[in-house]
Design brief:
The chain is mainly alpha-helical. It contains six helices and no strands. Helix 1 packs antiparallel against helix 4, helix 1 runs parallel beside helix 5 and helix 5 packs antiparallel against helix 6. The N terminus is likely disordered. The chain starts with 24 loop residues before the first helix and ends with a helix. It has one domain: Four Helix Bundle (Hemerythrin (Met), subunit A) (Up-down Bundle), CATH 1.20.120.
Length: 194
């Protein structure tokens, strides 16, 4: 079962960060780190769209006939954010390698946070729903970043294969952590009969 079963209403993972000190520290850490991952992925240009932008664009196209031909591509957004507009191929690949390493580390650390929460005590089904929402946004960010870096890799003749493989593994671990949280939430709901 994937994350489509959880409903996330805030406009990004920062909406799940709470000052509620009654939450276990593991949950607070997960939510703060999911928000930090999201912010970094957007700031670095690894994610080209703000949350909800794809839905707004599709609505505009369907209802108002608006096109999107003047939108910059994800690669153009990345080049701008990374200062690569005038860079040569070697600089682009080297920057992408560093960025992939950072993205992998952030994703892997968030996966570990999810695994820690799944084993924590003092959880409620409702609080786990918010944790899942934060991870859902992070997973979306990681998928978009992977698409960007795969495009760069194709242009660079496969020079980023190893680094992309690391991000794919971290992404898989993050997905597994989210699945673990879903299972834990299901157990809590079944235990309380809700």
């Amino acid at each position: 079962m994937g994350l489509s079963a959880c409903v996330a209403t805030p406009s990004g993972p920062a909406g799940f960060v709470s000052g509620d000190r009654q939450l276990p520290q593991a949950q607070l850490d997960l939510r703060q780190n999911a928000a930090a991952l999201d912010a970094r992925f957007h700031e670095a240009g690894w994610v080209a769209e703000a949350h909800g932008a794809a839905v707004q664009r599709l609505t505009g196209m369907l209802m108002f006939g608006r096109g999107n031909s003047d939108r910059p591509t994800p690669v153009e957004i990345y080049y701008e954010a990374a200062g690569l507009n005038d860079a040569g191929p070697d600089m682009i690949i080297e920057t992408a390698r560093r960025d992939l390493s950072e993205a992998s580390t952030l994703t892997y650390n968030l996966a570990r946070d999810g695994e820690t929460v799944a084993e924590a005590g003092g959880l409620t089904a409702n609080s786990l729903s918010d944790d899942l929402g934060a991870l859902e946004y992070a997973l979306t960010d990681v998928r978009q970043a992977l698409a960007l870096f795969r495009t760069l890799n194709e242009a660079g003749d496969g020079q980023l294969d190893s680094e992309i493989g690391s991000l794919e593994l971290a992404s898989e671990r993050l997905g597994n952590a989210a699945d673990g949280l879903m299972s834990r939430r299901r157990e809590l709901r079944n235990a309380t009969g809700s």
